[in-house]
Amino acid sequence: MLDSSFEKQGTVHRRTESAYRKCGDNTGESVINLSMNDKGHWAGFTLVELMVTLLLAAIVLGYGVPAFRNLILNNRQAAHMNNILTSVMLARSEALKRHHSVTVCKSANNSSCATAGGWEQGWIVFDDPNKSAIVDIGETVIRAFQGFANDATLRGNANIRNNLTYELTGFVTQAGQFVYCDSRVQNPANDAADVRVLVVSMTGQAKIVVPAVGAVNSCLSP
User: Fold this and answer.
1) Which domains does the chain have, with CATH numbers?
2) Could you give the count of Cα atoms lying within 13 Å of 195 in the half-sphere of its Cβ?
3) pLDDT, tens digit, 9 for 90 and up, residues 200-217
4) What is the DSSP letter of 220?
5) What are phi and psi of 190, to 5 degrees?
6) Is the N or the C terminus of the chain less surrounded, counting Cβ atoms within 10 Å?
């Protein structure tokens, strides 16, 4: 009786162990298969997906790069025009304060006036009581403005090609205008939207404007 009972228990135990091993084998196989399926699903792009991605990237760059370049040029343009406007207004206020003439002239060395080249090389505001448009001995450079570190140009028309003088009244000796062009401007008459002009009236007032189409015919000799 006891032997028979032990045999039955052993048989049940072996069957249970065999079933457990099968269950474990099936579970392990499922885990391995699932891992392989997941790995296959995550394994990079197909050639078509890669080509579509590259095409979209090219389209984005095609629109984004020119827009970014325009943003840089617009910011640079605004900074340069604000500098020349600041210098003109400084000369006017100093002439009123000092009760004698103050001159703005183009300068490459921050200390004396130049007669060659354009205003893009730099310019200075200086005390000019004798209205000579030259920094004479005893006359003070009030402020120097650095030139442009790029290919932009800033030129004055015939009246203010080299200098602009403010009287003690705040009026100027000659009205004129400064024309600013950068690399976007191939033909200023047609590319007027990218040109900026600083207009100085006889009363000494100054303002930055966008010229009308055809109003500016040359960036170098306005």
Assistant:
1) 49-174 (3.55.40)
2) 26
3) 999 999 999 999 999 999
4) S
5) -95, -30
6) N
Rounded Cα–Cα distance for residues 35 and 43 (Å): 12
Query: Over the stretch 39-70, which tens digit does the pLDDT of each residue have?
Result: 555 556 687 777 777 777 777 666 666 778 88
Name the amino acid, one letter, at 141.
V
Q: Which of the 8 DSSP states describes residue 105?
A: E
Could you tell me the two tokens for 23?
A: 């269950």
Ramachandran quadrant class, 37 (left: phi over 0; alpha: psi -120 to 50; beta: rest): alpha
DSSP characters over 39-53: HHHTS---HHHHHHH
The Cα 144–Cα 126 span in angstroms is: 9
Residue 94 has pLDDT above 50, yes or no: yes
* Residue 3 CA: distances (Å) to CA of 66, 110, 222: 94, 117, 121
Spatial separation of the C-alpha atoms in residues 109 and 141, rounded to whole Å: 12
